[in-house]
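Q: PST family polysaccharide transporter, please. Structure only.
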Amino acid sequence: MKVVKNYLYNAGYQIFLLLVPLITTPYIARVLGPHGVGVNAYTNSIIQYFVLIGSIGINLYGNREVAYHRDDKRKLSQIFWEIELLRIVAIIGACAAFLIFMMLAHKYHVYMLMQSLLIVAAGLDISWFFMGTEDFRTTVMRNTMVKVLSVILIFMFVKSIHDLALYILILSGSQLFGNVTLWPYLRSRVNKVPLRELHIWRHFRPALLLFVPQVATQIYLVLNKTMLGSISGVNSSGFFDNSDKLIKMVLAIVTATGTVMLPRVANTFAKGNIKKVNAYLYSTFDFVTCISIPMFLGLAAIAPKFSTWFFSAKFAGIDQLIMCEAPAILMIAWSNALGTQYLLPTNQTRSYTISVTIGAIVNLVLNIPLIMMWGAVGAAISTVLSEASVTLYQIYVVRKQVSIKNLFSDIWKYIISGLAMFMAVYALNLKLEFNIKTLILEVALGVIIYVIGVCVLQARILKQFRHFIGK
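A: Structure for PST family polysaccharide transporter:
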């Protein structure tokens, strides 16, 4: 029941995160335009590399280590301080690397400096500790407060393209403020540990092993925007950023399961209950399949008219990017279940690393020719193919550990229901003039058709739902 409660906390927060961009993104798209959005996306993509250097895999590693030792407060306290001190050392190194980069960079200096607060924020981020102890309420409440504050500040002070630096400062500053506000909650959870008892370097190698897949992941999450900005210009980067942002909004609801299940599966694995670990995987894989298929097909169905209504006429043609990139929702949902919810908590870091490295290589190899031929559309296609390669390798890895037939047993039911929904919503989208009422109508129609399809075909998710209601 705690897993369900944590998922509801996290999913509720992800829905809130979905609503925030629904309010701010159309406003920012109109105020800053493709150029302003593109500059933010391009400079942020560069800063993320330094954030990555300073993080050295701590979020995943720290989450897992806390989950392993959360029942021993003395051990837990020692591990927390060792890991956090290691991160601070790494962040200092990242800051030094950033200063050297700034000496060599020739443009966007002011925007880079505003973005650089994210590097400092990463050093003070201890959300991994609360996730490892399965305390999602604390992080969710803190993040919600910070997001509300940032939205208020955006509407109050960002009025034109000339406020771009201020907009970036609000985003990065709110992230830093939010991370600082988590520290007071540590008082009752960890004890002070004498400095002489701390051995931070023993965590360096295992954290570094998780740093490698994060580097690979970052390549195919951020590299698209960096390469688009360099090859096609910041406007193309702005188009792709908005399309990608919309995909990630929808995806956040699906990947909430990974954040919740990693510490739970890690703790179960530490106790040696492999049967229960596999049972968790079957349930979560079926769940994410059930919700990600209608999400990606539904988003593709409303894209033609929704995109320009949402982002403004300045972003005409972005619907093609959204429709091309939408299948990534399903691919990432599967790789999240197999990678974050199974491979990492069961200590199969090497396999996870190889999978995301394959994705990074595929993305890097395909990006150059596809971006040169089709610009932002090429980046969207490259994203889907790279995510698919990650998923296929992870399926190959777990094929002897779990039943692949069991994982995919009901996928045809979700696909049939999703396609029926897509055809009806897409036809309606092309026929009607788009406004908020039309959006509500199309979403409602899609949900009704999909739910009816799932019920008629008696998909496995219904058994999980009845089991949950029975509790």
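A: Brief note, in case it's useful. The mean pLDDT is 84.
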